Amino acid sequence: MPKGYAEGPAAEEAERRRDELAAGAAQATPATRIAVEGCTEGDAERHFLGWADEVDADTLFATGEAWGIRLVRRPVEEHVSD
């Protein structure tokens, strides 16, 4: 096995999770919502535009307010600074 393959934070997290599952800990699935991401005149990098049930992605695109739009699942708890 190449050096670094099973080292570091990812390997430690995987080992911690294996131990939890072996001990019978329930696997928590975070609640998610569908987010709208896209580019705007003010920020050409794709960024959070709003939640899909609160923002109309088709209207944003049709009016030219945003482009490069995609819908992605994000954890509800995820802090959005946009």
List the helices and strands and how they pair.
Blueprint: H1 9-22, E1 32-40, E2 43-51, H2 57-62, E3 67-75
Can you characterise this structure?
- This protein has 82 residues and is an alpha+beta fold.
- The protein has one domain (9-75).
- Helices cover 24% and strands 33% of the residues.
- The chain contains two helices and three strands.
- The protein has helices at 9-22, 57-62; strands spanning 32-40, 43-51, 67-75.
- The chain has a three-stranded antiparallel β-sheet with strand order 2-1-3.
- A hairpin with a 2-residue loop joins strand 1 and strand 2.
- The N and C termini lie far apart (42 Å).
Give the domain tally: 1
What share of residues is helical? 10-25%
Q: How many separate helices?
A: 2
Main pleated-sheet profile? 3 strands, antiparallel
What class would the helix/strand composition place it in? alpha+beta
CA distance, first residue to last residue: 42 Å
Write a brief caption for the model:
With 82 residues, this protein is an alpha+beta fold.
Q: Key features?
A:
elongated; 3-stranded antiparallel β-sheet; 82 residues
